[in-house]
Amino acid sequence: METRLEIRLHEPNPLFTRWLERWLHEAEQHDRKSQHKLRQALQALRNYPLPLYSGRECAVLRGFGPTLCQLIDDELREFRALEKQSAVPALAATPTPHNSSQYEEQVQQVVKVVRKQKQKQRQEQQQMKKPKKLTKKAQQELAAAEERERIVHMDAGSYRIVLLVDTQETSGKNKRVLDQTRGYLQSLGVQHEVRRLTVGDFLWIACDGAGNELVLPYIVERKRMDDLASSIRDGRFHEQKHRLRQCGIAHIIYLIEDYGDNQQLGLPLDSLQQALANARIQSDGIQVVRCDNHYRSMCYLAGVSGVLQQLYLHAGRSLYSVDKSALDAVTGGQVGLLKFRALYEDSARNAQLTVREVFVQQLLQLHSLSLDRALAIVERYPTPRLLLDAYADCGSEAEARQLLATLGCGPLQRPLGDKLSQCIYEFYANEFQ
After folding, report:
1. Residue 102 and residue 96: Cα distance in Å, rounded?
2. In what helix (H) or strand (E) does residue 224 lie, and over which residues does it extend?
3. Which of 51, 153, 248, 393 has the fewest CB atoms inside 10 Å of its own CB, making it the most exposed?
4. Is 201 an active-site residue?
């Protein structure tokens, strides 16, 4: 590997520097306007790393105009004439061929020193035969990567199906009713465990005796009507729906519980019903189930658990682990499923997101911008940079404001509209003060 060296003389042009310092001192004493140019030229000369041989060569530096260059040449002629008349040797002053050869010799010496150091480093590296011991964190990361790559097989009858309940569904501030979740499930005879889930509120896993866990393709997001209204107001509803669709589980169920007589929810009941209808119609794989109360919701989950027992255990299906890209693969009675650990890590809120995913979440924070509209925008412009470039290519501000107005969104390809197009333009094109 080549090494680039940077050689700088301590003071390449001592004579020119001395003259400029003298002229600058005189200009400052007499308060002349030239002092500013002289100060600028002196600073540029001190920063220049190579020798200069005449005033004409100084013209490449900042602050050296024709007058100053001519003044240096005149001073240099007088100095050389005086040097010839006098027997006193010159002060290492003007760069001469002797100085140039000396400079080259110094460079060669530095190169030799650097080569010796590089050779010594190579010898030390060759002598270090012992590999470095991995840190505990590196060992954990390596073990986690190997675990993700390991293929898990579960033969028919060797596993059991367990309902996982998110910790937020069994405890939490101002959620006293949800404390009854475990009691209801136990009374209904549902085999379940309480864990922290990074996506959804309920899901089912297949567990074997070796501790392997595969996620069945069904996930439930439970919402009470007042919670649904709150999540729509603050944008969580669209963000959660996006994360559910990105997690890789095919069948998404919104379990909606009535809140008393559904009065004083914070939003009109018609608006909530319209939001649920849109989620059901516009998003493939999303099912909406309405229940009267919390007990009815747990009864529904118990029913789904029984159906999954029939579909997988009683049908004698074997299971094996696959990546998200190979889901829904059924070969010879074997079903490909995600590992629970992979789902947990990939769906975490602090997981590494792509620019496209962050762009979608940004758009969802804007008022009246649904998931289908955000996805349509990101399909046309995958990153904010591309959207800003498209705005810059518009001939006028009015054209830029209407750039997204005719963009088709959702299954019906309805246009985004003028109002939302202008809102997005104002959000991304205006600079915050």
Report:
1. 10
2. strand 213-224
3. 393
4. yes
